[in-house]
Amino acid sequence: MIDLHTHSFFSDGVLVPSELVRRAENKGLQAIGITDHGDLSNIDFIIPRMVSVSEQLNQVLSIRVIPGIELTHVPPAHIGLAAKKARDLGARIVIVHGETLVEPVAPGTNHAALLSDIDILAHPGLIDESDVILAREKGIFLEITARKGHSLSNGYVANLARKHGAGLVINTDSHAPGDLIDSEFAVKVVRGAGLSEEDFLAMQNNARKFVS
Predict the structure, then answer these.
(1) Are 12 and 37 in contact (CB under 8 A)?
(2) Of 33, 54, 37, which is closest to residue 45 (Cα–Cα)?
(3) Do the beta carbons of residue 157 and residue 193 sit within 8 Å?
């Protein structure tokens, strides 16, 4: 199992990065992305620390740690700039917090994210069909999530992604130890979205593109 979307206490998670990684390793994960919530106020603080701790942990652990960021509630007009700064700071995964059904994310966030240099549009809610096509064209992955609330639109996202050939990944959006899942449960989440075990394997192949 590769999980590209998790949070430490550098944003609203409850674990230091090392404990988050150890708990993921204990779950049998092969790789984990640490992608704390950020905007233009704090990405210069978070990303260099994630890059540093990832380098240190990767020297001694078998699980691979990938430094990233989740740009969260950033005004659509600023997403492109924030994504560029995140890349310049060393983020290897740039996620944008999509228009989930359970938070007041600004309308237009999904579209602005897909026009920017990002890797994953997280929990994109009732994403416009035209934006699913744009995601496919840009090679940006849409997220199927195990996160409570955000997962309400998994079936909708999966159906449109399958219709238009957009790439998918399965992530947990973990904030606490109990949010982490193993591959067996991840398959259940994928199947619950109307997809198959073969789709899960394809999602994991997509995720491997971020693992060095």
Answers:
(1) yes
(2) 37
(3) yes
Residue 212: the pLDDT is 74
Backbone angles phi and psi of 10, in degrees to 5: -75, -10
The pLDDT score that the predictor gives to residue 90 is: 98
In the numeric block, which tokens belong to residue 121? 């549009």
Cβ neighbourhood burial of 212 (10 Å; 0-12, 13-18, 19+) = exposed
From CA 176, how far away is CA 146, in angstroms rounded? 13
Report which secondary-structure segment, H or E, holds 164.
helix 154-164
**Quick one: pLDDT at residue 11?**
97
Check residue 188 and give its pLDDT. 98
The pair of structure tokens assigned to 38 is 């950020």
CATH number at residue 173: 3.20.20.140
pLDDT digits (tens, 9 = 90+) for 64-118: 999 999 999 999 999 999 999 999 999 999 999 999 999 999 999 999 999 999 9
Range of the domain at 96: 2-210
**Which residues of the chain register pLDDT less than 50?**
none
From 63, 7, 72, select the one nearest 35 (Cα to Cα). 7
Overall number of domains in the chain: 1
pLDDT at 140: 98
Q: Are strands 120-122 and 141-145 parallel, antiparallel or unpaired?
A: parallel
What is the phi-psi region of residue 115: left when phi exceeds 0, alpha when psi lies from -120 to 50, beta otherwise?
alpha
Q: What is the number of helices (H) and of strands (E) in the chain?
A: 8, 8
Residues paired with residue 93 on neighbouring β-strands, in sequence order: 68
